[in-house]
Amino acid sequence: MKLKTRLVISFCTILLVPVLLLLIFMMTTGNRQLQYLEEYGNRLQQEEGINLEEEQELQGTNTTLPAAARMVPEIRNFLKNIAIVAILVLLITACLLIGWIYTGINVPLMKLRKATHNIAEGNLDFTLEVDGNDEISDLCRDFEEMRRRLCESNEEKIQYDRESKELISNISHDLKTPITAIKGYVEGIMDGVADTPEKMDHYIRTIYNKANDMDRLINELTFYSKIDTNRIPYTFNKINVSSYFEDCCEEVGLDLESKNIDFSYFNYVDENVEVIADAEQMKRVINNIIGNSVKYMDKPKGRINIRVKDVGDFVQIEIEDNGKGIGPKELPYIFDRFYRTDASRNSSMGGSGIGLSIVRKIVEDHGGKIWATSKLGTGTVMYFVLRKVTVE
Predict the structure, then answer these.
(1) Sign of CA dihedral 34, 36, 41, 46
(2) Is 320 helix (H, G, I), strand (E, B) or coil?
(3) Which pLDDT tens digit goes with each residue over 208-242?
């Protein structure tokens, strides 16, 4: 049943029920009372008729009815007027109430209907403005909150689709480069270009390094898919800071030495300081940051330093390089997914643009924080902290 029909029925009920009750009362009890009053007056007239005639002859006046009998017509007219006034009052009151109720309900409902049509057509760029504190106004506000969240979800989906396309584009570009190099060196070997042991060794090492680059890109893509679904496998354990970073930096140092990059490690924490962390994922963090430093190294003699410091309740790790640095406008966005400072794609540096976003995700999942400082032409320092556990 529509709202208008319900209101019409309510209007008729509000108006007709009291009127019918009033008419029934007037036709039954009220009418009987009037008849009784009229009969009483007639009976009184008959009983006192003789005395009245004698008095009238003596006084020389006209015949008059008793007061009760004379009041019956006036009482009837008075009751009729009361009934008419009551009906008018009920009619006006009912109209005002129904109009007020109808306006208070219909206006928000019409706004809701228009809003649902907009959403059905895929239009979320509007605002449902509602005034009032009643239940329907609360419903409209809840609807507006739903629309706002749908709009945010739609924007996130658009952003996600755009990032996914960008990821595919980046990965495709960065996979094409090592594949092309591998094909070129393999063809050189097949054509006999590598005709000396030194050339053959150089070709094979280059193929091996390019294959490692492809493997790294594929691993980043796989890990990114786990980040996107919050399915990163963590194995948290207590790790001694000194021994862990010493072993890790020893391995990193050998790799950097082969790339003609100076490496230094400084440990400023006590031997008994521990953190709760996933050793494998922490190693990924360090490798990603150092890999970024190597990729953007523009000095003839590169330098990378790692410092581990005790800062109260946390252990702070600093990874410093003397690369080309990052501009102040770009620095706040380097941990965002797919952000690349070499956005032109003409750079030979490559990269999927998700390395540092992976780093931030891992550090934050460990309850830590990561940030960076940088100066163009001088270098960059990456900082991240992990909550420590002091061994008693």
Answers:
(1) positive
(2) strand
(3) 888 887 887 787 777 777 766 667 778 899 999 99
pLDDT of residue 347: 42
The secondary element (H helix, E strand) that includes residue 381 is strand 379-390
Q: 389, 274 in Cβ contact below 8 A?
A: yes
Helix-then-strand count for the chain, H and E: 9, 7
Cα(99)–Cα(366) distance, integer angstroms: 62
Which residues does residue 40 pair with via DSSP β-bridges, in sequence order?
none
Rounded distance between C-alpha atoms, residue 337 and residue 357, angstroms: 5
DSSP one-letter code for 161: H
Q: Extract the tokens encoding 175.
A: 């996979």
Query: Partners of 262 in the beta sheet?
Result: 303
CA proximity to 269, closest of 319, 317, 308: 308
Residues 358 and 117: their CA atoms lie apart, in Å, by 41
For residue 207, the Cα-to-chain-centroid distance in whole angstroms is 48
Query: pTM of the full predicted structure?
Result: 0.58
DSSP code of residue 332:
G
